[in-house]
Amino acid sequence: MYDLFITVVLISLGIFIVVTGLIVIALWRGKKEKAIPEQDFGSSKSEIFWMTGPILILIWIFVISAKLILTMNAVPKVHPADANAEIELTVIGHQWWWEIQYGGTSIISANEIHIPVGKKVRVKVDSADVIHSFWVPQLARKMDAIPGHPNYIWLEANKEGVYQGRCAEYCGTQHTWMKFKVYVKSVADYEKWKSNAEASFTRTSQSLGKSSDSDKNKTSGKDDPNLEKGKQIFLNEGCVNCHAIDGKTTPNIGPNLSRISQRKILGAGVLSYSTENLGKWLKDPQKFKPGCKMPDFKFTDEQVDQLVTFLESLK
Ligand code: HEC
Ligand SMILES: [Cu+2]
User: Fold this and answer.
1) C-beta separation of 266 from 277 below 8 A
2) Residue 144 belongs to what H/E stretch?
């Protein structure tokens, strides 16, 4: 896109220089010669020249623009296997948060996208309920998230940093709080992040598999009685009906809570992440995000502490 912009600017600059140059020459000559010079009406040679020139230039601009538009729109037709993407992401809009699946890995996250700098990332944009729109203003155009009709878009960042993302299609009461962040890292940092995340999912699934045998639970802090109590609340109070914690896709009514303590935001931007805010959210999600799909469990402060201990152990 940038290349096209520069090319068009250069072409226009060329035309500008030629036209102003001719005007300046004419002015300069006109000042020297006081009389009107000999006129040259109806010279078919110069008429043809001044017509074909601009036509050729317009065709040239048309062709390079059309080429770019076609390649941008051709993305959906590219078969995943032969796409020239280096990384594949699936982003699924939910009321009111984003599920992020990393192709070729078991990593599933929410409201945060991690990508390496300078790599082409192919994003499949889908929705689990209503029409949303995936938008990272600094990195790409908007792309509709339509249930049952995946769309594709490229994300590519040339600079490391944090980029803001939004839902750009009104999708219900909490549409405004459907934010996400894109973390663009160096390739080495991205690889490190990826292997940490994968290792953590494996650890969590293993420790869940052994849930009956809690002595062997190596998640962390096995001496903390709150941890085991928190886990029991999590398993028994119905959290598992909406949340996965081991990097698996289902259930996905709510965000996957694996590595929740590594997040920077909660409730798709409504709260920044901190142990305290995690507790506040669990105490009453409806207070911060009225209408959101997570019920208020009316937990006691003690139960909230136990849940927080358990959730923060999923590193
Ligand atoms: C009926 C489904 C449902 C149940 C049951 C449920 N949640 Fe949620 N939860 C959600 C949804 C949906 C969200 C996302 C809300 C949003 O951001 O709009 C969420 C968000 C969260 C978040 C914030 C995650 C993030 O990335 O922002 C945490 C933590 C959480 N739930 C923990 C729990 C715990 C612990 C339980 C059990 C006590 C539980 N949830 C029960 C649906 C549910
Ligand atoms: Cu939305």
Assistant:
1) yes
2) strand 143-145
Same structural domain, 293 and 217 = yes
Contact 125, 167 (CB under 8 A): no
Q: Which two tokens stand for residue 167?
A: 């839902």
Q: Which ligand is nearest to the CA of 245?
A: 1
Task: Verify that 177 and 95 share a domain, yes or no.
Answer: yes
Model pLDDT for residues 153-193, shown as the tens digit of each residue: 888 899 999 999 999 999 998 999 999 999 999 999 999 99
How far does residue 133's CA lie from ligand 2's centre (Å)?
Answer: 6
Q: Which of 40, 73, 106 is the last residue of a domain?
A: 73
**pLDDT, tens digit (0-9, with 9 covering 90-100), for 78-104:** 555 545 667 889 999 999 999 999 888
278 CA closest ligand 1 atom index: 29
Nearest-CA residue for ligand 1 atom 36 is 239
Q: Whose CA is nearest to atom 16 of ligand 1?
A: 267
Q: Domain count for the chain, please give it.
A: 3
The pLDDT of residue 211 is: 47
Put simply, whether the predicted model's pTM sits higher than 0.85 gets the answer no
Q: 121: Cβ–Cβ under 8 A, 6 or more apart, which residues? A: 85, 86, 87, 88, 89, 115, 154, 155, 156
As a whole number of angstroms, the distance between CA 189 and CA 177 comes to 28
CA of 294 to the centre of ligand 1 (A): 5
Q: Which ligand is nearest to the CA of 166?
A: 2
Please report the sign of the dihedral spanned by the C-alpha atoms of residue 144, residue 150, residue 152, residue 156: positive
pLDDT of 73 over the 50 cut: yes
Look up the domain containing 7 and give its range.
1-29+53-73
pLDDT digits (tens, 9 = 90+) for 280-309: 999 999 989 998 989 898 889 999 999 999
